[in-house]
Amino acid sequence: MNVIDVSSHNAFVPGEVELEDDKLRLIEERNRLLGPAYRLMYQKPLHFVRGEGVWLYDPDGRAYLDTYNNVVSLGHCQPDVVEAIQQQVATLCTNTRYIHETILELAESMLATVPGSDLSHMMLTGSGSEANDLAYRIAQVRTGGTGVIITEMAYHGITDAVSKFSATLGQGVPLGAHVRCVRAPAGYRYGPNTAERFQADVEAAIADLQRHGIKPCMLIVDTLFTSDGILPEEAGFLKGAAEAIRKAGGLFVADEVQPGFGRTGDTMWGFQRHGVDPDIVTVGKPMGNGQPIAGLLTRHDVVEQFGKSSRYFNTFAGNAVSCAAAAAVLKVIKRDAIMDNARDTGAYLLSKVEALRDKHENLGNVRGAGLFVGADIVTDRETGGYDPKRATQVVNAMRENGVLISIAGMYHNILKIRPPLVFTRENVDLFVDVLDQALESSNG
Ligand code: PMP
After folding, report:
1. What gap in Å lies between CA 68 and CA 39, rounded to an integer?
2. Which of 129, 224, 314, 418 maximizes ligand 1 atoms within 8 Å of its Cβ, making it the mutation to test the pocket?
3. Domain of 14?
4. Are strands 280-283 and 294-298 parallel, antiparallel or unpaired?
5. What percent of the chain has pLDDT over 70?
6. Residue 39 sits in the same domain as residue 50
7. Banded model confidence at residue 333, pLDDT cuts 50, 70, 90
8. Mutation pick for ligand 1 pocket among 71, 124, 285 (CB with most ligand atoms within 8 Å)
9. pLDDT at site 16
10. Residue 190: what pLDDT?
11. How far apart are CA 211 and CA 182, in angstroms?
12. What are the pocket residues of ligand 1 if the criterion is a CB atom closer than 6 Å to any ligand atom?
């Protein structure tokens, strides 16, 4: 055992913690080799060597219940996806400069998930950040504007352009002068009329951009407002805001990197819960169940001028192996009725977490859509005071007891519960027992 200052590699509690010698050595190697920009999660960082289904295993064979994974959304090492990757990588891996069927098969399947919309093209990228970067480039050409409207704790990625509209990167990463933030549509905190309030906020941001001589280009939102604290209610509240940005000559971009691919249960995409038709939909994370693939869906008229003026080539994006993985993901979602599970097991999870409020005064508002649940940790329910310290204790206590979750929101007090979509009721029962204990111990 050794003691290390974890402030440089811990997202939650700066301070001192005892770590095993092996782990300490690996962390020091990471810092030496990867430099200072990386972060590890949890007060006691984790080291994994294997994953299967909803479980992750450390070098001693200890299993951790993964309740924080929307990348391997179908579970770790999902066999159909593994097989699709293995077969394709052993056959051919080329790029979009050659004709290949897999990307076409994938595009057909992706576009079939947005029936009734005019979204008719799929473009691929290597990451969600690149997808939003490309969306912004396309939107600038389409609208002739540059102004971007986001929510106050939005995260959209890390490229130079996108980091300027990723508020959650913090003070050290400045927002662009062409970017305006609006309050997160947290109806449960700010009172009723979420739709009207959100629309009014967007309209005020549009007016402010125009007042500064900046032409509005796009309103971009994560349709489940994940980093703002998971804000699903009331479904439908995005409509007015989307109309407002269009009226001002801008586009409405739905960032589906977190809510997409069936997570919300009732619909494949978060925007479909709201009954809006985005001009561009960006996708990523779960698309390849771990294989790096992301992209966007858009209408022909939106991308027409961009296509004429810019050639688009992205070396790894659209390679046959990633496309095979993504095609397999869509097949499994359908074959295994993954959305039904997200809806039913999600409802069960939500009800069980809600039920803990009877026992724990510090558990404030609980809400969710499908297998995505947000739960506020508050000083007391009367005032709803934020309690980030207790939230951090809960997350770290759960990690000690073998269950992984994280934190979201402006005040770092919201438990972010986001299991793989193959989570079972049995997994929920275990999860809720461990959450119950962690809430109990945070009182001590
Ligand atoms: N948009 C949202 C909503 C995200 O959550 C993320 C990643 N957390 C991104 C975009 C960026 O995706 P990537 O990390 O693949 O670049």
Report:
1. 16
2. 129
3. 1-43
4. antiparallel
5. 96
6. no
7. very high
8. 285
9. 64
10. 83
11. 16
12. 127-129, 132, 155-157, 222, 226, 255, 257-258, 284, 294
